[in-house]
Amino acid sequence: MNRIIIVSIGILAAVICISYCSRTKTLSPNLEKQSGANENDAGGTMVVRKPAAAGRFYPSSPERLSELVKGFLSDARKEMPVLSPDTKIVEILSPHAGFIFSGATAAHAYVELEGRDYDTVILIGPPHHVRVHGASVYCGDAFETPLGSVPVNTDLARRIASSSHLINDDERPHIQEHSLEVQLPFLQMVMKDFSIVPILIMGNKDVLDSVAHAMSDVFREIREQHGSVLFIISTDLAHFPEKKDADKCDVEILQAFCTLDADLLLKKDKEIMSRGVPNLACTMCGLDAAYVGIRIANAMGGTEAFILDRSVSSDAHVPGAGTESVVGYGAVLITGGN
Ligand SMILES: [Zn+2]
């Protein structure tokens, strides 16, 4: 009995958000390329990344998954104002925990994308399993979810991967990573005919500045060739303090993100982390991704940011996920654009 409880709590903790500390883990043994039967444009075998988080972070049944996401979107639609079609959405920030915890908050950002067309979606998030120095761009042919296959914009992915010595095309950090994969079922429900470029980011400020600079140059150059581009930043918020402390930290870090001043975000993170908040492991597990996300939004003309929704894991009222130790989630929209 005790063993069952311990195992259940272990799984729960993983799904609330794989621990910030696990960022330093070494390579996962499961690194095989997942090849499909089809050929890609270059005449080679299609390299398709199979889902790693299905059945853990979200249902593996296509029917159950689409029903769940539809429900989240329907609830969020009732609360969200409809943006004027003239308002250009440059970027969203979305959480990446198990859908029962953070799906409702994520939906507040995704519902704003309904009826909009983007040719390419750039997914930027933190690696939780394999250390990355700078950025790793997935340059295989597609990401698969239970809802179908999403093509990678391989031209753009390779271009980004070769734009700086701090950006590589190492696919290993992507194989087990959930932070980008869990965004896809939402995208698949609100948009059609889009491709993606999955990017995992980690580094110190100098590294992040170089990565952001190189990537922004590419995005500015390709704006004409690749049509409309949307950026999605994947991060969860405060890890493991009690709810009342998480609520306070999360509001402050999201407000700092919404200033669209990347240096201010790092400053606020440092200041919050220096307070000695009990059990606070980080303000954002995707702080590096969020920092680069602001720098890219700046380069792409993003001028305003809005917090659409915020919650913590205990708000989902899942048995075993109490208020004494929580993870925070936020949904943010950045508009503007040039
Ligand atoms: Zn995380």
Describe this structure as you would to a colleague:
With about 350 residues, this protein is an alpha/beta fold. It has a single domain (about 1-335), classed as LigB-like (Protocatechuate 4,5-dioxygenase, Chain B). The protein has ten helices and twelve strands. The chain has helices at about 1-15, 60-80, 100-110, 155-160, 170-175, 185-190, 205-220, 245-260, 260-275, 285-300, and strands at about 35-40, 45-50, 90-95, 120-125, 135, 140-145, 150, 165-170, 195-200, 230-235, 300-310, 330-335. The strands form two sheets. The protein has an eight-stranded mixed β-sheet with strand order 8-5-9-4-10-3-12-11. Strands 1-2-6-7 form a four-stranded mixed β-sheet. Strand 6 (about 140-145) and strand 7 form a beta hairpin. The longest helix has 18 residues, at about 60-80. The chain is globular, with a radius of gyration of 19 Å. It starts with a helix and ends with a strand. Residues about 1-10 and about 20-35 have low confidence and may be disordered. Zinc ion (ZN) binds near residues 17, 126 and 285. Zinc ion binds near residues 126, 128, 179, 236 and 285.
Oligomer: single chain
Number of helices: 10
What small molecules accompany the polymer chains? zinc ion
Count of folded domains? 1
CATH superfamily: LigB-like
Strand content: 15-25%
Average pLDDT, rounded to a whole number, is: 89
Strand runs, count: 12
Examine the secondary-structure arrangement and name the CATH architecture.
Answer: 3-Layer(aba) Sandwich
Rg from Cα = 19 Å
CATH fold assignment: Protocatechuate 4,5-dioxygenase, Chain B
The proportion of residues forming helix, as a percent range, comes to 25-40%
Structural class of the secondary elements? alpha/beta
As residue ranges, the low-confidence spans are 1-11, 18-37
CATH class identity: Alpha Beta
- Widest sheet: strand ordering: 8-5-9-4-10-3-12-11
Specify the overall morphology: globular
